Every structure is written in C-alpha cells, then in structure tokens.
Amino acid sequence: MAREAWKKQRNRDIKTSNNPSNPNQNACAYAVARHLGVNTSIKYLHRISDLHRAIRKKYTLRSRMSNAKKLLKKKPLTVNQFKKILQKNT
C-alpha cells in the first residue's frame, strides 16, 4: 500500500516537473546537487528527501540543530543563551 502511494506521488512529481530536459529531476534540486557534485548519484531529484539521499552518497549529512541539541542539555538555559546557540548554528 505504501509503495503504491509512493509510485503515485513519484508519477505526479514527474508530470509536474519544471525540468523539460529531464523530468525525473526538479531543476532546483538538480542545481543544488550539481553544485555539490552528486547530480549523477540518484535517478530522481524532486523532493528534499531525494536531495538528502543524493548528498549522503558522497557526504555526511546532519541536521544543523544537532550541535545545538547537545548544548541544550545544559539546564537551566536562558533565552539569550538559546539565541546565541541559534546564531552560531544557522
């Protein structure tokens, strides 16, 4: 059932693609992947999950907030301390 939903979603992405030369890849996602050198890693590039999968073929990909999470374990944390953590990690 989930696979059928995934196929319908993928077909919809291909039909509404903004890349006429290769409808399997969204032009925006393709530009980012090309800049990172991972544009040939996977067939489909429409959603952020596709882009993440392509990037993970060559690089380690992690959340920008993963560094802040370990700093957030310190309690209590003031609002100003939290703002400084966000500024460093964005």
Looking at this protein, list some descriptive labels.
0% strand, single chain, mainly alpha, 2 domains, elongated, 5 helices, 90 residues
| Tally of distinct domains | 2
Largest sheet: none
Order of helices and strands: HHHHH
Instruction: Evaluate the radius of gyration.
Output: 18 Å
Q: Give the overall shape.
A: elongated
**How far apart are the termini?**
38 Å
**Fraction of residues in H or I helices:** 55-70%
Separate helix tally: 5
**Category from helices, strands and their pairing:** mainly alpha
Whole-number mean pLDDT: 83
Number of strands: 0
- Uncertain stretches of 5 or more adjacent residues: none
Strand content: under 5%
What does this structure look like?
The chain has 90 residues and is mainly alpha-helical. The chain has five helices and no strands. It is elongated.
What is the topology?
Elements: H1 2-15, H2 27-36, H3 48-56, H4 66-72, H5 79-89
In short:
With 90 residues, the chain is mainly alpha-helical. The chain has helices at 2-15, 27-36, 48-56, 66-72, 79-89.
